[in-house]
Write the structure tokens for this entry.
Amino acid sequence: MGLIVQKFGGSSVANAERVMNVARIVTDTYKKGNDVIVVVSAQGDTTDDLIEKANEINPKAAKREMDQLLCAGEQISISLLAMAIESLGFPVISLLGWQAGFNTNSIYSNARIKNIKTNRLQAEIAKHNIVVVAGFQGINRYDDLTTLGRGGSDTSAVAIAAALKADRCQIFTDVEGVYTADPRKVDNAKKLKEITYDEMLELATLGAQVLNNRSVEMAKKYGVELEVLSSLNPIPGTIVKEVAKMEKMLIRGVTKDKDVALVSILNLQDTPGVAFKIFSKLASKNINVDIILQSFGRDGTKDIVFTVNKENGPVAVELLNDMLDDCKIVCNTEVAKVSIVGAGMESHPGTASKMFEALYESNINIQMISTSEIKISVVIDAEAADRAVSAVHKAFIPND
Amino acid sequence: MGLIVQKFGGSSVANAERVMNVARIVTDTYKKGNDVIVVVSAQGDTTDDLIEKANEINPKAAKREMDQLLCAGEQISISLLAMAIESLGFPVISLLGWQAGFNTNSIYSNARIKNIKTNRLQAEIAKHNIVVVAGFQGINRYDDLTTLGRGGSDTSAVAIAAALKADRCQIFTDVEGVYTADPRKVDNAKKLKEITYDEMLELATLGAQVLNNRSVEMAKKYGVELEVLSSLNPIPGTIVKEVAKMEKMLIRGVTKDKDVALVSILNLQDTPGVAFKIFSKLASKNINVDIILQSFGRDGTKDIVFTVNKENGPVAVELLNDMLDDCKIVCNTEVAKVSIVGAGMESHPGTASKMFEALYESNINIQMISTSEIKISVVIDAEAADRAVSAVHKAFIPND
């Protein structure tokens, strides 16, 4: 018994039947004696449909007007969910982002929450209402509507949980939790009972699209205990918290990221500051560089190899060709990044070699390596990515 | 040059092409040096679609949640229209009902405007922005969204024009103005240049669905000059004002209303207060009685005949059967009401007889007659309604 914040994404409320399903999950939680605040996204394809309507009229529309438009999406889903909960006989009220007190800055389409004025939320909870809140949206100091950007509803839910010191923030998705690898592709992939915020952040960055990073960062900052679980099969999912039990596993999971391009600068004249110039140029064009490898060549030249998002690969090559005259620049988009994540690995020196051994035995060539305290990543040929994940997973995750 | 309020209904903004058409009308007005505030309804069938979504989930949903849901409709249309105006290169901003300052009472789904806090509207006009305002909606003292009920966008437009003392309020529809009769049915039906508020109110009540009555009443109260004109062919329409020129016509128009049922109570015992009891019973069930006719019979009995809306006919009969024992009650729904409206008729005593003569010559039997200062109505057989309108129109409206 306590205060539970529950968040449901667009696919969970895509039609009348699913809205009723969510209403049952919410009221089951309420019936157990909990106060419940529910955060919902726009239904299914609503946001995409609205964007299409806008593009038909003005593809370069002011972001303020786009936000005004898109906020209608959650407005529809919250009132429908409230009606569904009402039909089950429970007291309920829906609140738009601004009604729930979400104050943001004025960066339309990607606003940051400044604070939540919680008086309305608290008043509705005091009246024992189930409160349905529009995710993804808020209001700025000019009384204009703003949206929080991609994954914004997760952030809305965590922000409410933090502001009201909720006992738990449950993020309902279409998977049953966080797995050691993609369960559709890897036999014996296991659902984790617990995972730390930092591990979750690494997994999210590495392509396990379960939770939005901003929301995990916020949960970490305010100590909000998250649970990732399925709206279609609401059994216990994965808890995300500060310290998590390791469950006899050295690592938490194996991930694959195919959105990678490998850019190589060969025979670069090794003059002082040349690396700085290259990477500040890329940064100035908002190109995020992930792994960097530098090797010394002969005759005062060196090679620099780095990875960027796939779409930024050709852009980076063009930028660098304009800047660097007498070196060869090539881009390989047929690569993938395979990573293992786990907070325990830094105290187990054999982790990296165990991963490399698994890849070697599968005859997979490693092109780059990058390590952090809780992560080891390798860049390999894209075609070998699935085999690599299976081999590494088998080496680390015990069979049942 | 001045301040013009323009209102466009749902069919005028039903798709991208029509939204662009409205944007051109608005910016043409702005280009002539006017300040422009545009009030829009939800696109085409949006409101009906949202109601259907709600009914699928909960046909008896709380009206507060219905209003929360329906307000999304105009939110979509205002932002799209703002984008369209922006694409033509004009400064523009969209405002939701509450952003535009519409404060209402708390009668969800049928709220009344209490006042408009005009500071935001005035600030945007001062910045030379075209302001696009969501019609039909406002906010109550609890910061909850409300809607104004049927025809609410007309009311929103007139309320803004009244609050800001606009020079004119233009109501764009799919007809080119107010006609002396339905131009699709009556040859030689003429568009009126001017009409008084009172005449417009009678015409609206009588079934000429051009302007919502509440908005005409408000325009009359605050002296807002209205113009009814077409969004597809924006030539001068019909002006609605306090005093209107008569244009050589004795009447303003001929209308037909088929939504009529004639209820007859025959052989009613003529005891004191019986008529009062009958009509207070009907009023208590919210049945509006229009025309009443009473005739004295023999042996201390009388007959009472009255008209109500068609759907209320059988309801009234059932109510009265429960209440009155020994009289015969019949309901005839195969009737229609044909009326002539014109502020000048009270100073022309021959008007009524001219109308009756036209009907007599067409061999149409009159069942009931009702007159007011600016209106004469007759109840006739429904099958004769179109012939009656043509005959009366021909008698009163001069040929070109």
In short: The two ends of chain B are 34 Å apart (CA to CA). Chain B has a mean pLDDT of 91. Chain B touches chain A at residues 16, 19-20, 50, 53-54, 56-58, 60-62, 64-66, 68-69, 71-73, 75-76, 78-80, 82-84, 86-87, 93-94, 96, 99, 120, 143-145 (CB under 8 Å). Residues 63-87 of chain B form the longest helix (25 residues).
